[in-house]
């Protein structure tokens, strides 16, 4: 049996999404900016997709910018604000659990003279609002925080942060790459100025994403070129992928509540069985609201990579952290920020469920996991030392 439990890294393209895209590869293939018939057909599809996404967010089509990835959307937001508002100040704020697309961009901006405050989180990976308030300065121009964490799934107090930002006239950016399509997100109502999300997290193809930018917020240029996307993101529009992300998002929000309930019940069953059948494990961020399909589990006295590789041999795909940093031998910065010791962080596996996962797959995973943990612990010096105490 093959079981894919790495949906936070990427998802399978839905067949209905693929079918919606196909005509724009070979039938309506014109450049959307061309004035001839081929171009107008493509241009119509892009305009309709933009409006479809805007309607879902209760936004205006002019506030939707298409990009090629969540990382690009994050960079366009953060670097664009830094360039456009640096005359007001050079202090920017983020959290200690951000995706590398934000974390590394903030570090990079320090070389351009920006001062960065990194706000700590609690043991569940939730930003400490009191520390955020302490970090505010007169020259603070940007706060950037993710909506839900990609590794442990915990949600951040977005509306409370938005209120703080609005009171101080600070631009507020939210990375919603993991949460879009899973919960209702209305940027204007929630007080969000910029919002990033990526299609491949909700069954659209890789290579297409969105940056919502509230009308009135200025963005400095990050890429220069043509007039596409209001000159904010030049480059020939990827018509089939734009159609794909709009179709996938429409499908995701149509079944959002039902799918949340199904995934959450399946995840809870999985976690309950793990706790019953395997000793010395910890479910991270279990006590707070999490993404419904995300389960971060620490298996004490073991290396996560050994667990991952053994599961892979059984046909089960999981992750030891963010896919964008999983080639690193360093422990997860998210888990360390939550106060988890490095040796435990090394023994943590992320199981991320999606709409195609079944109870049969979860039962198969549980049986394999029990067998693998027992085998690995039988040869683990750390486990044997613990047992000898």
Task: Give a written overview of the molecule.
The protein is α/β, with parallel strands linked by helices and about 400 residues long. It folds into two domains: about 5-10 and about 255-375, Aspartate Aminotransferase, domain 1, CATH 3.90.1150.10; about 15-255, 3-Layer(aba) Sandwich (Aspartate Aminotransferase, domain 2), CATH 3.40.640.10. Helix content is about 40%, strand content about 15%. The chain contains 15 helices and twelve strands. It has helices at about 15-20, 25, 35-55, 70-85, 100-110, 130-135, 160-165, 185-190, 240-255, 255-275, 305-315, 335, 340-345, 360-380, 380-389; strands at about 5, 65, 90-95, 115-120, 140-145, 170-175, 195-200, 210-215, 280-285, 295-300, 315, 350. Strands 2-8-7-6-5-3-4 form a seven-stranded mixed beta sheet, with helices on both faces. A three-stranded antiparallel beta sheet has the order 9-10-12. The protein has a two-stranded parallel ribbon with strand order 1-11. Helix 7 links the parallel strand 5 and strand 6 (about 170-175). Helix 11 (about 305-315) crosses helix 14 (about 360-380). The longest helix has 22 residues, at about 255-275.
Sequence of strands across the biggest β-sheet: 2-8-7-6-5-3-4
Number of H- or I-type helical stretches: 15
Query: What overall geometry do the principal axes of the alpha carbons give?
Result: globular
Number of domain units:
2
Query: How much beta, percentage-wise?
Result: 5-15%
The CATH homologous superfamily of the largest domain is called Type I PLP-dependent aspartate aminotransferase-like (Major domain)
Amino-to-carboxy terminus distance:
39 Å
- Largest pleated sheet: 7 strands, mixed
According to CATH, what is the topology of the largest domain?
Answer: Aspartate Aminotransferase, domain 2
CATH class of the largest domain: Alpha Beta
CATH architecture of the largest domain: 3-Layer(aba) Sandwich
Provide the helix percentage. Answer: 40-55%
């Amino acid at each position: 049996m093959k079981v894919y439990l790495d949906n936070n890294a990427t998802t399978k393209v839905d067949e209905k999404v693929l079918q919606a895209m196909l005509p724009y590869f070979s039938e309506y293939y014109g450049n959307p900016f061309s004035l001839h018939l081929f171009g107008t057909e493509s241009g119509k599809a892009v305009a309709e997709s933009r409006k479809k996404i805007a309607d879902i967010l209760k936004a205006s089509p002019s506030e939707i910018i298409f990009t090629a990835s969540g990382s690009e959307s994050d960079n366009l937001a953060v670097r664009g604000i830094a360039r456009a508002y640096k005359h007001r100040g050079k202090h920017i704020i983020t959290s200690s659990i951000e995706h590398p697309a934000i974390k590394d961009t903030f570090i990079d901006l320090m070389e351009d003279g920006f001062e960065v405050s990194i706000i700590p989180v609690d043991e569940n990976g939730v930003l400490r609002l009191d520390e955020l308030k302490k970090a505010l300065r007169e020259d603070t121009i940007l706060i950037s925080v993710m909506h839900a964490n990609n590794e442990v799934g915990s949600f951040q107090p977005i509306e409370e942060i938005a209120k703080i930002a609005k009171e101080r006239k600070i631009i507020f950016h939210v990375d919603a790459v993991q949460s879009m399509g899973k919960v209702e997100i209305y940027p204007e109502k929630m007080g969000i100025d910029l919002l990033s999300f990526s299609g491949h997290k909700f069954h659209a193809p890789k290579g297409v994403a969105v940056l919502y930018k509230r009308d009135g917020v200025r963005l400095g240029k990050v890429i220069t070129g043509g007039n596409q996307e209001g000159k904010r993101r030049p480059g020939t529009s990827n018509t089939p992928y734009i159609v794909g992300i709009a179709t996938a998002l429409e499908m995701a929000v149509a079944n959002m509540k039902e799918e949340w309930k199904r995934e959450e019940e399946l995840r809870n069953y999985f976690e309950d069985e793990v706790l019953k059948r395997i000793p010395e494990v910890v479910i991270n961020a279990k006590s707070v609201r999490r993404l419904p399909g995300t389960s971060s589990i620490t298996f004490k006295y073991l290396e996560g990579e050994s667990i991952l590789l053994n599961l892979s041999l059984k046909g089960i795909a999981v992750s030891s952290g963010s896919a964008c940093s999983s080639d690193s031998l360093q422990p997860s910065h998210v888990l360390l920020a939550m106060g988890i010791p490095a040796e435990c962080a090394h023994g943590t596996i992320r199981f991320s469920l999606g709409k195609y996962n079944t109870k049969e797959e979860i039962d198969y995973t549980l049986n394999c996991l029990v067998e693998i943990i027992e085998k690995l612990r039988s040869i683990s010096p750390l486990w044997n030392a613990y047992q000898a105490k």
